[in-house]
Design brief:
Elements: H1 3-40, H2 42-49, H3 55-71, H4 73-87, H5 89-106, H6 113-122, H7 124-140, E1 148-157, E2 165-167, H8 168-200, H9 211-241, E3 255-257, E4 264-268, E5 271-283, E6 289-295, H10 304-315, E7 321-324, H11 331-339, E8 343-346, H12 371-381, H13 383-390, H14 396-406, H15 417-440
Helix pairs in contact: 1-5, 2-3, 4-5, 7-15, 8-9, 11-12
């Protein structure tokens, strides 16, 4: 080999080495390009895709997602290395570059919590309608026969703190205090404005309150809004009872919540909490939910007639039998069930004083007083009645256990009676879909 041949060979080897280095550098640039974009936008991604946490927590969760990319890199190298040895490294390289590019492009189509929230707001009524559609599918599959229905309710935590509630009496005390404080700040602002105008000219804004002082103005506005709301509710109750709304007085203990005004303070196993009252009517044979609703009335006794009518509207007839606990016991409810020809077994309350004053229009000493209650007492004492009432514990209570225990749904996310009803209906729809899937799945 001559000297010139050796020089040409060394030059060719150097060019190949340069090509290898250039290709490796290009691959590294492409590989790190996605990581660079994600790392640069981690704070923005945390705000959009991790709701319900602080900004710092969202940022850390985004970085953890970023770290997951590094964790799976060795596995990706093994997989694509195997394909590279069999199909060619150039093709594999092009595939990996395309996959990274498509993944980066597809991030733009992922819905964040703003998009999901807007979807729920726009299609609230449609989400409610899904419950009926799935219920009819369950009936076609033979899961709804309305032989025995169990009715019960549970308290679901509202998306509001009970510490954001205030009584009417407390509002009467706080309103003049906050109003005087705001007036004092405004007077002080006027004096300082005049002094600053003399020193800095009339263009200086001397009316704006500092950020730390605007909170009191907002609290005053919230209190006045809550006070007007309680007064309006009292007038509506007066009109419903035939009283003069102009003469009505709001009880000092009447409360409203500033975060979710339609939620109410209710008694729960964890004490008094800001809640809604969620109702379910469940078919005993399949544990399919046949009627559901949410109300802000703590007692269950008021919910039996509307639940019965909802069930009739959905399926065209009343159930043959119905069981419920003592919370639904009243002479008026027993009369409604008798008129609908529903054979009901409902536990009785211990004392008659729990009954509403107008539950039975018969005179107190009349022999015909409480006829439905007396018939219910006899029915519960019979062996047939005892057997039917036992079905309640294995029908509706397990459904609440599946929803609150197995699926962990104990607190509502939306606010307001309408949105909360749609959220509860969507959850009941998911429950019925699971029952339908289990019943129709191939063995």
């Amino acid at each position: 080999m001559t000297i010139s041949d050796g020089a040409r060979k060394a030059s060719k080897t150097g060019r190949r080495l340069s090509q290898v280095v250039a290709a490796s550098a290009a691959g590294t640039v492409f590989e790190w390009y996605d990581f660079f974009i994600f790392g640069s936008l981690a704070a923005l991604i945390g705000r959009h895709f991790f709701a319900g946490v602080s900004e710092a927590q969202g940022y850390l969760l985004a970085l953890l997602t970023f770290a997951a990319g590094f964790a799976v890199r060795p596995f990706g190298a093994i997989v694509f290395g195997w394909f590279g040895d069999r199909t060619g490294r150039k093709r594999t390289f092009l595939v990996t570059i395309s996959v990274m590019g498509l993944a980066t492009f597809a991030v733009a189509f992922l819905p964040d919590y703003h998009t999901i929230g807007e979807f729920r707001q726009r299609f609230t009524e449609e989400l409610k309608g899904l419950f009926l559609q799935v219920l009819l599918l369950c009936r076609e599959a033979g899961l709804v026969r309305l032989g025995h229905i169990s009715l019960d309710g549970t308290k679901l935590r509202a998306n509001a703190s009970k510490h954001k509630a205030m009584s009417y009496g407390r509002m009467l005390q706080k309103e003049p205090v906050l109003a005087a404080e705001v007036a004092r700040w405004l007077d002080e602002g006027r004096r300082e404005d005049a002094a600053e105008d003399a020193e800095h000219g009339p263009d200086d804004d001397g009316w704006s309150l500092p950020d730390e002082l605007q909170e009191t103005s907002r609290r005053l506005a919230k209190i006045r809004e809550g006070k007007s709301r309680l007064e309006a509710m009292a007038r509506e109750r007066a009109v419903a009872t035939g009283d003069d709304p102009a003469q009505v007085e709001v009880a000092e203990r009447a409360q409203t919540n500033f975060t979710d005004p339609e939620s109410r303070i209710m008694h729960t196993p964890d004490g008094f909490q800001q809640c809604y009252n969620a109702q379910l009517a469940v078919d005993a044979e399949s544990q399919v939910i046949v009627a559901c609703e949410v109300s802000n009335a703590p007692p269950d006794v008021q919910r039996l007639p509307p639940m019965l009518e909802q069930l009739h509207a959905h399926l065209g007839r009343y159930p043959a039998q119905l069981s419920a606990d003592a919370g639904y016991a009243s002479e008026a409810n027993f009369a409604v069930l008798a008129a609908a020809e529903v054979h009901a077994v409902i536990a009785l309350r211990r004392y008659h004083r729990d009954e509403p004053p107008d539950a039975d229009p018969a005179p107190k000493r009349a022999s015909r007083r409480w006829p439905h209650r007396n018939a219910m007492r006899e029915r519960l004492a019979s062996p047939e009645g005892k057997a039917l009432y036992k079905l309640r514990k294995q029908t509706v209570e397990p459904v609440f256990g599946q929803i609150k225990g197995a699926r962990g749904f104990r607190q509502l996310l939306r606010r307001g009676l309408g949105p909360v009803s749609a959220e509860w209906a969507l959850l009941c729809t998911a429950h019925n879909l699971l029952k339908l899937h289990q019943a129709t799945a191939q063995p």
